[in-house]
């Protein structure tokens, strides 16, 4: 009964003085789990008050029971979902904390309606809700960084490290004091470790008088132009419009502007899969409570060495695979298999410069046979051109990989040779 309310959201409990890093469980496939719908209904029913008086307790307990009932309805499809288990435990804790009985009315939560002149209509925001004005009023302009994830999947970190990773299941891309981003990667082909992003969750944490906590979620064939609670901005606070979603192309391209932290996020659906790109100030990137956990976040530290594709192993496997093809039956190939020549020709249609985006395109066509991966590489580079602050670093040519102790990486590898090494890469991923 302290009067301080916590709400379980995707593994987070709000209201804690220290921000708890997300812990992710890797679901094998995107599930029909609807826990975020339960969360948003509970938020809508209980928002508008920062503390609970005695007269509010019955209404809060009713909302909690409705929340619990909602989680039970979706339990069968949420068995492996961390957000679901976090919500169930959070509900139990809140029941005890507010002396709520599990038996009682469970009326549907009241959904807030926007009235004329509500925060959705506000155009002016406090200065604190505009990053460049508030944080850098008397200093130099902030240094912006970029991170992107696309394709099979390829990662460009905030430090312009470029990696090709396996990372199947759920992984954290970003986790700092202001937002969390999690992606789920699923197999592209049956029996293959080639993966692509099938689900994306972004949590914008509540910030001063600017924005309420907001959750955005996209999945294959579902790219909403709103947060999970149906809103398109930061909620009911005065600076709500410092966080806004804009739909650029219906079902294919959305942009989220978070002016209060100087951040722009672009999410696309290309073919069946999602791409992610962000522009963020270094100050925001490095704003974390637990610096020892920074290595968990892909955009900051890259993929773990065990999850990066080892091109040394690929080269050593070339001879083995070649002998296997000569001695035995042909290995399975993607449905629309590309040869090295046809893959490079197709990628040159959209990516004339043979940089790492071009090479990633070739890699993806050889491993998946899906021409949409060529478009994913193309749009990823278009997003870099829009979001990266250093136009001299748009093209990257040298692959980078963090090797475990005792391993050595070849230096000075020519891009053409690097592409050639990818030709048999799908054989190693099948």
Short description:
The protein is an alpha+beta fold. Helices cover 29% and strands 18% of the residues.
Task: Outline the structure in words.
Helix content is 29%, strand content 18%. The chain is of the alpha+beta class and 430 residues long. Among the domains are: 34-47 and 55-98, no CATH class; 129-301, Mog1/PsbP, alpha/beta/alpha sandwich (Protein Transport Mog1p, Chain A), CATH 3.40.1000.10. A hairpin with a 5-residue loop joins strand 4 (154-156) and strand 5. It is globular. Residues 1-30, 48-55, 108-123, 311-334 and 400-430 have low confidence and may be disordered.
Outline the fold blueprint.
Elements: E1 8-9, E2 12-13, H1 35-46, H2 57-73, H3 82-97, H4 131-135, E3 144-150, E4 154-156, E5 162-164, E6 169-175, E7 179-187, E8 195-204, E9 214-219, E10 243-249, E11 253-258, E12 263-270, E13 273-281, H5 282-285, H6 298-301, H7 311-327, H8 340-348, H9 356-368, H10 372-387, H11 415-422, H12 425-429
Antiparallel strand pairs: 1-2, 3-4, 3-13, 4-5, 6-7, 7-8, 8-9, 10-11, 11-12, 12-13
Keywords:
disordered N terminus, Protein Transport Mog1p, Chain A, 4-stranded antiparallel β-sheet, signal, 7-stranded antiparallel β-sheet, RGM_N, single chain, alpha+beta, 12 helices, lipoprotein, RGM
**In sequence order, what are the helices and strands, one letter per element?**
EEHHHHEEEEEEEEEEEHHHHHHHH
Task: Could you tell me the CATH topology label of the domain at 129-301.
Answer: Protein Transport Mog1p, Chain A
| Percentage of residues in DSSP E strands | 15-25%
CATH class descriptor name of the domain at 129-301: Alpha Beta
Give the low-pLDDT segments.
1-30, 48-55, 108-123, 311-334, 400-430
Helix vs. strand class: alpha+beta
Radius of gyration: 23 Å
Oligomer: single chain
* Total E-strand runs: 13
Query: What's the helical proportion of residues?
Result: 25-40%
The main sheet comes to: 7 strands, antiparallel
Distance between the termini: 56 Å
Tell me, briefly, the overall form.
globular
Q: How many helices?
A: 12
CATH superfamily of the domain at 129-301: Mog1/PsbP, alpha/beta/alpha sandwich
Mean pLDDT: 75
| Sequence of strands across the biggest β-sheet | 5-4-3-13-12-11-10
**What is the level-2 CATH architecture name of the domain at 129-301?**
3-Layer(aba) Sandwich
